[in-house]
Amino acid sequence: SIHQMIRICLNENPVTPWDSVLLAHYQEKDEFFWLNDSLISDKPAVQVADSMLFWLGNISQHGVNPNLYPVDSIREELQQIRTLKLREGKTMNRLLADVEYQLTAAYLSYVCQLKFGFLPPERRWNDSIDHIPLKQCDVKFAMAALDSLRANPNAAFHRAQPASPLYHKMQEELVRVNGWGVTDTTDYYRDRLLVNMERARWQYALDKGRKYVIANVAAFMLQAVNEETDSILEMRICVGTVKNKTPLLSSRIYYMELNPYWNVPQSIIRKEIIPTYRRDTTYFTRNRMKVDNYLHRSAGYHWSQFTRNRMKVYDKNGLQVDPHSIKWAKYAGSGVPYTVKQDNKTGNSLGRIIFRFPNPHSVYLHDTPSRWAFTRNNRAVSHGCVRLQKALDFAFFLLKEPDELLEDRIRIAMDIKPVSEEGKKLPISAAYRELKHYSLEQYIPLFIDYQTVYLSADNNLRYCEDIYKYDPSLLEAMNN
Q1: What is the pLDDT of residues 319-345, one digit of tens each?
Q2: What is the per-residue pLDDT across 180-198, written as a single tens digit (0 to 9) for each?
Q3: 225: buried, middle or exposed (CB in 10 Å: 19+, 13-18, 0-12)?
Q4: How many CB atoms neighbour CB 222 within 10 A?
Q5: Dist CA 40 CA 92 (whole Å)
């Protein structure tokens, strides 16, 4: 009779994986999770239903609306069962069916959403935002959650709690902020915490492993984490402007290139170089854009200016052309039949080393000669790529094992003095060839993410501004 009543409650068109598991369980099995001696026991140690209600009732410690679960109504029905004081129109079997169904449904959604996030995927980002692929709850995980409930309910409740140090710090901070009372300041910090606690529940689809890199765009900070040595290399970064946002993504760093050339993207040629050149014809000179020596002195430039330039312009046939001979104005709003390439080494916009990883946005991590930008609070200054404050240290972090000779080869290529005795001999060796690129022995997972509350390398909670304004839509979805 109770099973028949539970089946009436079931959603025949499940929306989530845990809905599917709930439906399958009560359709296929003659098994209750909550209807046992503990339901009516007066011994706290065996009151499993009350333990579940405790966890559900404290969902606000996760920054989630406490009204998400029908805790009060379940508790009231339990009280009716235990006192045998049934409300008019209710039967005992009806009450038992309601409690069994609602507790199991609440348990499954609680465990699955704490593990993978409360917001459904379509509510996490709007269509204009590039985002990192995330794991989603599936039927296999929900079924395993039921198995845990069957084996040891209290252990299952504890195991469901997020365990990361960042998450625990934010939980502690939320208690502190809530104690301030309601003010504009409280709302600011509380809203930041709610949004980032939800982000912290999301799981990257790409496995991090024990050694990985997280570039936090909102904080303008990068952390290279090695859990095997319990160390974190932290550094400032520069990211894309609001107009040229750095995409959020996950990938694997597999390759570093020393002294790269910069092939200027067509979008930059069209949107920046052409308008700037039309206002100032010294643009190529000031930006070290080298042109070939076939240019005539009649162009009005002294030869010494050409030797200082470090960019070249090529036509569609790959032949170098004089940038001053091109009528740039007619290409301002359309495709440009020229490419611009900046020479490597000194003055190159990519600096002395670049770290490449597969991605559809043609972005990468790289060194930069523009060191001034790292002194700014707002470091959203690039075209979308990520500039590194400590590019040499980052290169060493990526190596599988410390290697003095290889590290010195990287230093020499970057015009930095070698430090090992063997490394000091390299530049004077007749057989020495400058290192141009290096493929890593093992890929290093990279996550370019966006967190407006994060944990610094010294284990302190830090707040940062929402430079791309991603938080409001996420907060609205959380509140709804």
Answers
A1: 887 777 777 677 666 677 767 777 778
A2: 888 888 899 999 999 999 9
A3: buried
A4: 25
A5: 13
